[in-house]
Structure formats: structure tokens, C-alpha cells
Specification:
Mean pLDDT of chain B: 92
Distance between the termini of chain A: 39 Å
Helix content of chain B: 25-40%
Low-confidence stretches of chain A: none
Largest interface: A-B, 53 and 45 residues
Radius of gyration of chain A: 17 Å
Number of strands of chain B: 7
Mean pLDDT of chain A: 93
Number of domains of chain A: 1
Strand content of chain B: 15-25%
Shape of chain A: globular
Oligomer: heterodimer
């Protein structure tokens, strides 16, 4: 199997990861305090959900807390998955906002915390470091998701919990 | 510029390759070779691309202080394009064809003559059009071999990947669920399983 085929074959893991993250953020009320974690992560102001069949029907929901809206929960119940979401992440006093594009695991419109640096050179280094910190958080979460998703027993148990959450919403 | 201020849209890449032993000077030389050069209006090229320094789109005098910041290599990709607006070109072409017919005393022009007028007009107008200038920042962490290009535009990313490879000898692979999985320290079984599972269904009918 060539790389392009492998990439296409596993693209669905991105939206599944975003849904897993939504579920975790929802049940933990945004607070992530597991092993190696000490941050808050919220879904903020905009989410895009899409049906998974041939016809890609899209729901774009804008609200202060879009994942709490009846429209978002209804979209989940009809089989749509989150393709893009604006996330707000807090580590201590530092806040990042970013739009996470699930199928590509890429970020856009990222705002990093206010800088302490006084000159351009320091500011450049600080901004790059803050971007790396944000990516580090998301990559660690993706790895956690994969550990569950790629373990048959763990996933069987977890998907039942997620299905109940989707249908109860 | 996004890398220094404002919000950032990043295309994240994993870079794969070998650093040359004297990589700093080697890369400065390589960037000089592939520096941005203006479009020659006399040529038929309508686009030019190349590296400029991060802080100045007109600066192609690379040195260690402008390119290497702690663990990072920083640079901007500059792309200039000459575009004659289609509506403006059409107006000028109509006039040029009328003038040509009058000059030659002809009722009708052949296809070859029309093409000749069109080509000549295009070459004249190209000299009067200022190219559009676009600069896109990029940063490469030499420790982690992560690269960011601060644009999601597909065409710009393709130009960047090629120029990056030609300059530094590293191949860039964009992040995506599979490539990230390969960099997630999972065992081979998990990697193989990822290629053999189907997408999950989360919404189940309420009567189940």
C-alpha cells in the first residue's frame, strides 16, 4: 500500500479524534488533569459537522458554546462528525485559541498568549515556542486517542460510552 | 508577518533528510542560490518565486544572523505574479485589432494575424503591470525536524515543498492522521491495525 493510500485510508481518524476530544471535554467540563495533563480545553464559538456518506451535508454552528447547542447534538445523532472546531486551551494563565481542521490535523487562525518578549528576536522565539506548546498538547491527546482506538478491547468499551453520550445528548 | 504578529495559520510538516556537516554555511549558500529574483518583463514568465529574509521581502542577502534563530531556520517564500486583468486586456485587444486592420487596410484578419496582435499586446502590457507580491513565512525546527509554512493555500504549499527540497535536500510530509500516527511512538501492531479498521458509527438508532 503506498503512502497516499494509507493517508486516505486513515483520514477518518481525524474527525473521530475531534469527536473523542469533544466527548472528553464535555464529560470533564473542559478540565484535563490525567497523567501528564494539566490544562483546560473548550470548544469555542464555531464547529463544522459533516455527514459521512457520498453527499457531504454540512452543519456550521456558531454560538458561544456551539457543542452545547441542540443543533450540534442533533447533527451528531444523525451521524455527522465534527470536521473543524475552534478550540480554546488554557495552561495556567496562558490561553490559546485555534481552529482545528480534523481531516488534516492542521491549525488555522491560531492566537497565542500575550508575549513577554521585549524585542523582535525574543518575540519570534517565544511565538514559535508557544505554537510548539499548543501542538504538543494536541499531539499528546491524539496519541491517547490512538491508544484507545487501536486497542480492540479498550475501543469496544469506549465506543459504547460514546454512543450513549451521543444518543443521550 | 504572521510569524511575528497576529494570528497564525500553519501547515505543519515533518521534514526528512540528513543535515550536512557544515549545514549553516551550506544552507546560507543554498538559499542564496535560490533567492528571489524579479520577473524579467521581457521574458514570457508570469511568476517568480524564491527565498527572502523573514523581515524584509526585498532582502536576499542571507547571513547566519538573519536565518538561524536558536533551533530554528526562518525564512520567507516570496512569490511575484504578473496578471493583466482580463477585462482590461479585452478592451486593449479590441482597439489593437482595429488599429492593425486600419494600418494594413484589411477587412478581416487571419487567425495568425490575430494571434500576433494578441502576443505583441501582451508583451507590451506586461511591461506596464506591477507584479503582485506575496511573502509567506516559514520556520524549521532543526531539533524536532518540524516545519511550519504560514499558509494553507494548496498551490503555495506545493511551491514551498519543492523549493524547500531543492534548497535543503529535505523532503516535507504534511501532517495528517496517518503521518502523525507514525510519529506517535506506537508499536508496529497498532500501525498495522490503523490500516485495517473501518470508521466507527457513533449514532445508533434509539431502539437499539
Amino acid at each position: 500500500m503506498d503512502l497516499i493510500t494509507k493517508i486516505n485510508r486513515t483520514r477518518f481518524l481525524g474527525p473521530e479524534f475531534l469527536l473523542w476530544l469533544w466527548h472528553r471535554s464535555d464529560v470533564q467540563e473542559g478540565r484535563f488533569g490525567g497523567e501528564g495533563e494539566k490544562f483546560e480545553l473548550y470548544f469555542d464559538s464555531r464547529i463544522v459537522l459533516e455527514s459521512q456518506g457520498e453527499i457531504r451535508d454540512q452543519s456550521v454552528i456558531k454560538s458561544e458554546t456551539p457543542t452545547d447547542t441542540p443543533e450540534a447534538r442533533e447533527a451528531l445523532r444523525t451521524g455527522k462528525l465534527p470536521m473543524e472546531a475552534k478550540l480554546r486551551i488554557l495552561i495556567g494563565q496562558n490561553q490559546w485559541t485555534t481552529t482545528f481542521k480534523a481531516e488534516a490535523l492542521q491549525l488555522s487562525g491560531t492566537k497565542v498568549p500575550a508575549l513577554l518578549a521585549q524585542d523582535d528576536e525574543e518575540a519570534l522565539h517565544e511565538r514559535l515556542h508557544l505554537m510548539e506548546e499548543l501542538e504538543g498538547v494536541l499531539e499528546a491527546l491524539y496519541r491517547q486517542f490512538l491508544q484507545t482506538r487501536l486497542d480492540d478491547d479498550a475501543w469496544r468499551e469506549h465506543i459504547d460510552v460514546m454512543r450513549s453520550w451521543v444518543s443521550a445528548a | 508577518m504572521p510569524v511575528l504578529s497576529g494570528s497564525m495559520s500553519t501547515m505543519g510538516y515533518f521534514a526528512q533528510g540528513e543535515l550536512p556537516s557544515d549545514f549553516k554555511q551550506t544552507y546560507i549558500d543554498a538559499m542564496r542560490q535560490r533567492r528571489f529574483k524579479d520577473i524579467d518583463p521581457a521574458s514570457d514568465r508570469d511568476q517568480a518565486e524564491g527565498w527572502v529574509t523573514l523581515e524584509d521581502p526585498f532582502d536576499t542577502e542571507f547571513d547566519l544572523n538573519k536565518v538561524f534563530f536558536t533551533d530554528y531556520v526562518v525564512m520567507s517564500l516570496r512569490i511575484d505574479r504578473i496578471r493583466i486583468p482580463a477585462a482590461v486586456f479585452k478592451l486593449h485587444l479590441q482597439k489593437a485589432l482595429v488599429d492593425y486592420r486600419t494600418e494594413k487596410g484589411k477587412e478581416k484578419l487571419s487567425k495568425g494575424e490575430k494571434d500576433e496582435v494578441r502576443d505583441f499586446l501582451e508583451s507590451q502590457l506586461r511591461r506596464r503591470v506591477l507584479p503582485s507580491v506575496q511573502t509567506i513565512d516559514a520556520a524549521w525546527n532543526l531539533e524536532s525536524n518540524r516545519v511550519w509554512l504560514f499558509s494553507h493555500n494548496k498551490g503555495i504549499n506545493e511551491i514551498f515543498q519543492q523549493l524547500f527540497h531543492d534548497t535543503f535536500g529535505f523532503t516535507l510530509t504534511p501532517k495528517n492522521p496517518y503521518v502523525q500516527l507514525l510519529h506517535s511512538d506506537l508499536d508496529d501492531d497498532a500501525r498495522d491495525l490503523a490500516l485495517n479498521i473501518e470508521s466507527a458509527v457513533f449514532a445508533v438508532p434509539s431502539d437499539r
